[in-house]
Design brief:
The strands form 2 sheets. Strands 3-1-2-8 form a 4-stranded antiparallel β-sheet. Strands 5-6-4-7 form a 4-stranded antiparallel β-sheet. Strand 5 and strand 6 form a beta hairpin. The two termini are 13 Å apart. It contains 8 helices and 8 strands. Helix 2 packs antiparallel against helix 3 and helix 2 packs parallel to helix 4. The protein folds into 3 domains: 76 residues, Integrase, N-terminal zinc-binding domain (Arc Repressor Mutant, subunit A), CATH 1.10.10; 82 residues, Alpha-Beta Plaits (2-Layer Sandwich); 70 residues, YebC, transcriptional regulation domain (Alpha-Beta Plaits, 2-Layer Sandwich), CATH 3.30.70.980. Helix content is 44%, strand content 23%. The protein is α+β, with helices and mostly antiparallel strands.
Length: 240
């Protein structure tokens, strides 16, 4: 099981800032649309697990209920046909592996914007398949420890199928198989932990450590610039 991760803490802080900037609502609406499309048009969250996670993310971001309902209606309408998921791969400054997930109604525009950020940062835009094999799908749950010890989180998570637990100070990140994330989230919540998010993510199979603060900051800015694009849903790296 993992200990404190400086990179994970940076990412968590950036995620919180994204919510405050209001960038999340558009991204979550697109995530809801993609979830319904990939779920064969099923708009019932009880029958579409990916949609359930997207709706949970909307609640965690304090997205108004009417916005969520509007996104689901859009997902069932003609507009949804124009939104598609696009995956980009490449290497950040220093050779760090990067995967970008985007939801867009104009792939040419999104590709141009993503490439522009790569070029400006001196990063290397990759071909399909150049990086994705280095990652695997995992369930990820972030909880507040509520003044409880990390060992308590660890014990509950490990006893209920968690594959890894990471300490972030006031918070902890629990990783599980994608199929277990929903049940594990409910168990953690039932044990008094405040669940901040639960989702399916891409986790690097072999992570690398960046010890130099300047390099870490440079990569963090590169990732943040990508995440600030309206069409970009998530950015993953292989930094530990």
């Amino acid at each position: 099981m993992s200990g404190h991760s400086k990179w994970a803490q940076i990412k968590r802080q950036k995620g919180t800032a994204d919510v405050k900037r209001g960038l999340t609502f558009t991204k979550i609406s697109n995530a809801i649309t993609i979830a319904v499309k990939q779920g064969g048009g099923v708009s019932d969250p009880e029958q579409n697990f990916k949609l359930r996670l997207a709706i949970d993310a909307a609640k965690n971001a304090n997205m108004p209920k009417e916005n969520v309902e509007r996104a689901i209606l859009r997902a069932k309408g003609k507009e949804a046909r124009d939104i598609e998921e696009v995956i980009y791969e490449g290497f950040a400054p220093g050779g760090v592996s990067v995967i970008i997930e985007a939801a867009t109604d104009n792939p040419n525009r999104t590709t141009s914007e993503v490439k522009g950020i790569f070029n400006k940062a001196g990063a290397s835009f990759g071909q399909p398949g150049s990086v994705v094999y280095q990652f695997k799908s995992m369930g990820q749950i972030i909880v507040k420890k509520n003044e409880r010890q990390f060992d308590e989180v660890f014990q509950v998570a490990a006893d209920n199928g968690a594959e890894d637990v990471e300490d972030l100070g006031d918070e902890a990140v629990i990783y599980s198989s994608p199929s277990d994330v929903g049940a594990l989230r409910d168990i953690l919540s039932g044990n008094g932990f405040d669940v901040l998010s639960a989702e399916i993510v891409r986790q690097a199979v072999n992570k690398i450590e960046i010890k130099d603060d300047e390099s870490l900051s440079k990569i963090g800015n590169f990732v943040e610039n990508l995440e600030n694009l309206d069409d970009v849903q998530r950015v993953y790296t292989n930094i530990s």
